[in-house]
Amino acid sequence: MIIKLVFLGIIILSNLQAQLDFYGEANLRYNAYLKDLTNTQNPIRFAKLNINYGLSDFEFKSNTTLEYHWDSSDNNLINFREYYLSYYPSFGEINIGKQIVTWGFADGTNPTDNINPYDLNYMFDSGVDRKIGIHSISSIIYYNDLKINMILCYDNVKNIKNNRLPLPLPENKTNNVVDYGIDFQYNMNDAEINISYLMKKNIPILTQNSTLQTNVHTIGLNLLYLYNDMTIRSENAIFIGDNKEKFYQGIVQIEFPTWFDS
Question: What integer pLDDT is reported at residue 245 of this predicted model?
């Protein structure tokens, strides 16, 4: 009976207008200190596998890595970094599941890109490779030259510390956190303007004498401007806590080709 059901499932899936895509890579890495070339004992990702399965207006996406921990007895670790379902209606897309969501224009330090926590064991990697996936619902809506991103997070994943670096990261001890935000991006001929709002709950803040937890509201204003072969990216964020804590962070990134077009 089970064999018949398996064959029936294969026949049904083979006749559906579905598409299966998968790709990956393998890298052999060794992290060492420059002083004596001894191993740093930081975890490494030695293989990646992405699997996408599309059916009509739906698509399942996954991002999996194989990691090796030098200082752990359980050296072989499968990390399901992302797995979520995407739906593509006429106005944009809706995603639900464990995912990594990026906001803003800058490549490195990004003041308005605070949705996902970071794994500081991979702090020298680029882009999303440093981030941790969280369970959330996100959507993208297109209306003429306006793009609207909305996010609702129902997770309480924290930053993963690197125990070999003396970074004073306070602990967040509150569970069942729900964060939300909205992002507006307007496209013009040579520029893009971005305005965003994000509310993160129970964020620990270090002070001189203690550690406080407060809800933090982030208001962002970003600009991407193209001038000939030059690209200018400007990001600005104002962070406001429920206890009237306020601070500002901004960045300007300029890209231009050299004589060798590099």
Answer: 83
